[in-house]
Specification:
This protein is α+β, with helices and mostly antiparallel strands. It is built from 16 helices and 20 strands.
Length: 500
């Protein structure tokens, strides 16, 4: 089973000229979430290793380890198994571990609602500050903030093989996953409009950094799982999407490609001669037909490269079988590539960059202005405004001009309830049942205090376990943490203990 998760850094600004500290604004925001657990839970940093590199070494530096008071201020473990926190100068939301692309879409959208709840609470307390939050990736002043995807993957495949197979996919995937952007940044070639927001900010092929000299393939070796069995593919090259279809395809196609790589399918013929240059070139090609150079000396368009991956995926599914959701990913992937080849504007109700481009060009035609008009720049941000009454994406939704894949009811449930088929269920259930005894948590552990004030750490090293099916009866039969721990330690429950 593939495990999916995303981390979204939100842009935050204020109309109050006296507010010059985005860190303070972000802290104030996340601490006003109205549905926080009744007892504050620490985030356990002990198992984190952001300085470990998948190429077999550890870089110099000091890992983050805030004291308890600041930890509680920074981090808000959530009822749904996710995490709300401040990263640098931005509010950030991490989804719980999800077992399918559609489930990931639901929980990422729940994250938007969680941050919106925070924003509404802040505006009730400090209406004069005029705080605005965007789900985008750039402030338009040369600063980019991240959106990271995470995929569980077997440890045994050499990292350089992963890199070779994934870089052409990530460079070309932006033709359907890009969020659209006015202008260019980071000293790159001028552009009126681009397909992707992040493409200007990548400067190297492979590396550990996420804030500078950003790599297409990030090498962070921080599995949040059994390190002997798994690695976490930490993808920093994607845009934050408002469109449910774009998010679904972005993670769904990546999951299929990773399944093929794990099965030994090779994509050596797709190696790009200049992946950094190709990324920027493709982002500026609104017709999505311009060729890029391959290392073999041949030329190929982004659509043609994506078709190689798609055709391989279709053959892979026909040979090894597939489930309903993967079949749906393949169907939508094929449909989007066909429509992009025919005319990208036919996807105006599906893809963020197309919807944004159509909205802006229509406005410019009516108003007689150009790409350099300040109103167009403002529209670029307003598309990503998370307030339904203000955001242009939501205006399109109200007019039935953006298609949806999930329901509002599913999103509302996901704000409080974890996915049932991963360890997020167990983490969430423990937080709800034992809020006072849950001292700290992380993705891979829970730290409990018991009646005797003893501290017990329970490992959660298998993301595919800790599910409702494996642990609900055990939790229902445990009135206290001590009872739960005793049952987990009992030899008759060893299969469940391994599950958590």
């Amino acid at each position: 089973m593939r495990i999916y998760g995303t981390e979204t850094e939100f842009g935050i600004t204020t109309r109050d000229g006296r507010a010059v500290d985005p860190v303070a604004e972000s802290l104030f925001l996340v601490n006003h979430y109205p549905l926080l657990p009744p007892a504050p839970v620490l985030w356990d940093y002990e198992g984190e290793s952001p300085l470990s590199d998948s190429r077999g070494f550890e870089v110099e530096g000091e890992a983050e380890s805030p004291g308890p008071d600041y930890n509680r201020l920074l981090n808000k473990p959530l009822h749904n198994g996710g995490r709300l926190y401040v990263d640098g100068a931005h509010p950030e939301y991490s989804t719980p571990e999800c077992s399918s692309p559609r489930e990931l879409v639901i929980h990422e959208k729940a994250g938007e609602q969680i941050v919106l709840d925070c924003l509404r609470a802040v505006l009730r307390v400090r209406p004069e500050r005029g705080v605005i939050v965007y789900k985008n990736n750039t402030d338009g002043k040369g600063n980019s903030y991240g959106y990271h995807e995470n995929y569980l993957f077997p440890r045994d495949l050499p990292f350089d093989q992963l890199t070779a197979a994934l870089i052409p996919f990530f460079v070309t995937r932006q033709i359907f996953s890009g969020a659209g952007k006015v202008g260019a940044e980071n000293g790159t070639e001028p552009a009126s409009f681009q397909i992707a927001q992040r493409s200007d900010f990548f400067e190297t092929r492979v590396g550990l950094n996420t804030m500078s000299k950003r790599p297409i393939m990030n090498t962070r070796d921080e599995p949040h799982a059994d390190p002997k069995r798994y690695r976490r593919i930490h993808v920093i090259v994607g845009d934050s999407n408002m469109s449910e279809t774009a998010t679904y395809l972005k993670v769904g196609t990546a999951g299929v490609v990773l399944d093929m790589i794990a099965a030994g399918v090779s994509f050596a013929s797709l190696e790009l001669a200049d992946p950094i240059g190709a990324m920027k070139h493709i982002s500026r090609d609104l017709r999505v037909t311009a060729p890029v150079h391959l290392a073999s000396g041949k030329d190929s368009s982004a659509i043609e490269i994506q078709r190689v991956y798609l055709n391989a995926a279709q053959d892979f599914a026909a040979r090894d079988g597939t489930d309903t959701e993967r079949a749906d990913v393949l169907r939508r992937w094929a449909q989007v590539l066909n429509e992009l080849e025919r005319d990208p504007m036919t996807l105006v109700t599906e893809l963020d960059w197309v919807a944004k481009y159509a909205m802006m060009t229509s406005y410019m035609s009516r108003k007689g202005c150009g790409w350099d008009d300040h109103r167009i720049r403002m529209m670029d941000f307003q598309y990503h405004d998370i307030r339904p009454e203000k955001g242009l994406y939501f205006a399109l939704l109200r007019k039935n001009r953006m298609n949806r894949l999930v329901s509002d009811e599913e999103i509302v449930r996901a704000e409080m309830d974890a996915p049932l088929g991963t360890r997020a269920y167990f983490r969430s259930a423990c937080m709800k049942k034992f809020p006072k005894e849950m001292y700290a948590t992380s993705w891979s552990s829970i730290l409990f205090t018991t009646a005797s004030d003893a501290m017990t750490k329970l490992p959660l090293l298998e993301p595919c376990r800790g599910t409702e099916q494996l642990t609900k009866d055990l939790l229902d039969a445990s009135d206290t943490v001590s009872m739960l721990l005793a049952k987990l330690a009992d030899s008759s429950q060893q299969d469940v203990s391994h599950a958590t």
